Amino acid sequence: MPEALPLQPGDPRRLGEHEITGRIGVGEHGAVFLGRSADGRPVAVKLLHLGLSGRPLADARFTAAFAAARRVAGFCSASVLDAGTQDDRAFVVTEFVDGPSLAALVAAEGPRGDTVLERLAVGMAVALAAIHRAGSVHGDLRPANVLLGPDGPRVTDIAVRSALEALGTPPSTTGEAPYYQAPEQFEGGPAGAPADIFAWGATLLFAATGVRPFSDMAPDEDPDLAPLPESLRGLVGTALARDPADRPTAQRILDRLLVEDAALADRLPASMVAEGRALAQGVRAPQPAPGPGPDEQATTLFSAPTPDTEGTALIPGLADPGTAVLPPVPPAPKARRGGHVLGLALSVTIGVLAGVAIITLVLWPRLGGGDGGSGGDPANVADGRPVAAIPGTFAGTWKGTAVNQNSGVSFPVEVTFQEGGKTAHAVYPKERCNGTLSLTRGTGSSLEMALRIGKPCTPGHIQVTRQPDGTLQYAWSRSENGRPVGYQGRLTRIG
Ligand SMILES: Nc1ncnc2c1ncn2[C@@H]1O[C@H](COP(=O)(O)OP(=O)(O)OP(=O)(O)O)[C@@H](O)[C@H]1O
């Protein structure tokens, strides 16, 4: 089984048919657990934060939302294996993908080069063509939902957005989702197949530049397409058309990239090309059996030399996403918790670095001459030396979404650190709170800070910890009536 962090008190031990064995991470809508299916395969189980009480027919509505998605097969998507409800919560089970998300990799290492962009373009289009062909819609394609597995990109979270909508949850206006949404979605229109195509283009531009191409408002300017390889520029331009009718279908994208541009097809794994061409022609290709490691074709092609310096740059290791998570609430006294949690994260990290990181290095090289990314130096994430002031690796403005797992409430957080300072500035935009974080003690990789903040926000203890994927874990805690309470989230550097 892949590595994951241990389960916490209160975490489920079983969801549906699936044994739950560890924690992978927490997102805006749910916690993702590592599980084992009845046949022993590793699976990822997303348990939504949302409670179901008071939502009539929640079980039927939720499972129906995945009916079409469960028919999607293909090696560029994380297949939906099951969906259901248990103890007032809804869960969805997908194939486990052993690799970081595109968002995490770009945050840690910077933009990707042409070869990777072409693989991503085709891989995501293969996934979308299969999803649309099955009569489903992704609804929330973005860099966090593209996992970079050993055998290629895999699109995950298929139909989760429509399942949330089926439960009466309005589309998220916080977090990352709005930055990749098509104009029609801002006008309250449906997230149909053309919206997925818009998100395909926006996600590729993010991968090419390392920054989001649009703001969280309806896109109103044409983005600069120059950072994309010439092979993708025209297609991404039309994918980002404001009128959904002007966008190509996923099938048309595959036709252009794999049938009309044979040179591009020569640079990709043969299995990906075969599946893409079959989908372009409206037939289903034979499905490759999902394998745990890099297949022969993928390895050959992903490690092929390229005109730039891709593959030669030594990228510090990235760990399994599971290492990037701390327990939601400190279960033990503070001093022990810091050491225990960090030690735990490190031991898991060390265990997987040799596997995932080496595969990631070889298969997902960055742009030659890139700036090394905005996420600091993940190789030194284990820096346990005490510090008296904020280290340079924390400097900058970081943004993300925190989740209170007890209440299920999520909210955005923004924190700005200055190198050499002893305080940092925290903003909770939704609550309109500004606070000051004062360093109480810390190491090169983890800072303990006291948060002073006015109502409606609450002061408390903050622990900010650098993660192997270049993000920061931001955990708030305090004791209420002798009981620890807390929230936490992952922050990505934005400036
Ligand atoms: N199928 C999967 N296999 C392996 N890891 C996964 C899978 N799905 C999600 N993860 C990992 O689990 C963690 C949490 O994922 P999640 O989807 O909740 O994050 P998010 O996209 O930021 O949040 P949300 O989708 O709720 O807005 C991430 O590290 C993600 O890479």
TrEMBL record:
Keywords: ATP-binding, Kinase, Membrane, Nucleotide-binding, Transferase, Transmembrane, Transmembrane helix. One of its GO terms (molecular function) is ATP binding. Residues 18-259 form the Protein kinase domain. CDD domains: STKc_PknB_like. SUPFAM superfamilies: Protein kinase-like (PK-like) (SSF56112). ATP binds at residue 46. InterPro entries: Kinase-like_dom_sf (IPR011009), Prot_kinase_dom (IPR000719), Protein_kinase_ATP_BS (IPR017441). Gene3D superfamilies: Phosphorylase Kinase, domain 1, Transferase(Phosphotransferase) domain 1. The keyword ATP-binding applies. The chain crosses the membrane at residues 341-364. This is Protein kinase.
